[in-house]
Amino acid sequence: MFEHLKIPERVLLGPGPSNAHPNTLLSQALPLIGHMDNDFIKIMDKTSEMLKIVYGTKNRLTMPISGTGSAGMETVCVNLIEPGDKVLLCVNGVFGERWANAATRAGAEVTIVRAPWGEAIDASDVEKILKKDNFKFAGIVHAETSTGVKQPLTEIGKIAHEHGALFVTDSVTAIGGMPIEADKIGIDASFSGTQKNLSAPPGLAPITFGNKAVEAFMNRKIGVRSWYLDLNMITKYWEGKSRAYHHTAPISSIYAIYTALKLVIDEGLENVFIRHKKMGEALQKGLEIMGLTLFVKNCNHRLPNLTTVYIPNGIKDLDVRMRLLNEYNIEIGGGLGEYSGNLWRIGLMGNNCRANNVYLMLSSLEAILSQLGHKCRRGAAVEAARSIINN
Ligand code: PLP
């Protein structure tokens, strides 16, 4: 006997996925139509138009790849890298490290520029390496979900171009929660995901490729080594008057991203970003008032939508996270790598990024920590957060 699925209602305040907006979930229950149906192709075109708005770009090649954010990362790697190409990757957390690994597998000679976890990459370190050789691209994570660092991009993008390298970003945790402004910054290619600030289920990886990046994969000496992710073929399905079947589009996932993008655009991008900034600041202030220490020291480099905070001395990570889950139905993330057991990662992403969740998070964490012996003035964290939110 197999039982019907019974899924608990969680408040997903971790590093992702965040709760999907009810409208995106409902849209997935709409009837399937064929992936070559004109009505579906219109939905694809509008999805691409809306993605351009959220990415801040006019790039014609802007579309969702089938697969999660990592499929977007692989798409960038297999299309842009030819064996032996030199690639520079900035690593200050798990996702930069993953990208370096993927680029190496795609045949690149990878040079890594590092910064300590919790710090942004220094543009002058990137320049020192780019000066030395010809690099196909310089890649950097805009929002490092493992550490909570927001990476300034403008200067590094400029340096990459000055040295003839494409500038490529991982926007998985950035998209829909902070400005990307791909054209203004000069991002040549970028990949992202749906399950964070877009409040859609995981399963698609929006990408955008500018002209120089498109030329790079169109003029390859040897073909793209992945059949499934070859943009030369996928674009024949996503672009143009007559469309060629490549693989069956994940129809219901496209309905979901369409709906998710429409929600963001209807609210107004600027309003969405202000909401994320304000709620992030309120949460961070509340945590500090509770006597906790934020991991990212430089407040200009703190992500608004993913806060990393040290676990106080004497408190065991899982004691708190399990109580949050079992008593309050709240999921938050633990630290990764050497910070496992030392950090919590708290997300306020997309539709979850609301005042009620800031208060819920702070008051439940405060209640648990107080019971475990952590000293703090009860109610002060919520009060501090409220004064920021109501300001
Ligand atoms: N890059 C960043 C910054 C991420 O946060 C994640 C996922 O959390 C990924 C890449 C990988 O995305 P996915 O897990 O959707 O494949």
Structure commentary:
- The protein has 391 residues and is α/β, with parallel strands linked by helices.
- It folds into 2 domains: 22-266, Type I PLP-dependent aspartate aminotransferase-like (Major domain) (Aspartate Aminotransferase, domain 2); 269-389, Aspartate Aminotransferase, domain 1, CATH 3.90.1150.10.
- The protein is built from 14 helices and 14 strands.
- It has helices at 22-27, 38-55, 69-80, 94-105, 123-132, 154-162, 182-185, 211-218, 231-238, 251-267, 269-289, 317-328, 355-371, 380-389, and strands at 11-12, 61-66, 86-91, 109-114, 137-141, 143-144, 149-150, 166-170, 189-191, 204-209, 306-310, 330-331, 333-334, 343-347.
- α2 crosses α10, α10 packs across α11 and α11 runs antiparallel to α14 (380-389).
- It is globular, with a radius of gyration of 21 Å.
- The termini are far apart.
- The model has no long low-confidence stretch (mean pLDDT 98).
- Bound molecules: pyridoxal-5'-phosphate.
- Residues 15-16, 68-70, 95, 141, 143, 145, 170, 172-173, 193, 202 line the site of pyridoxal-5'-phosphate.
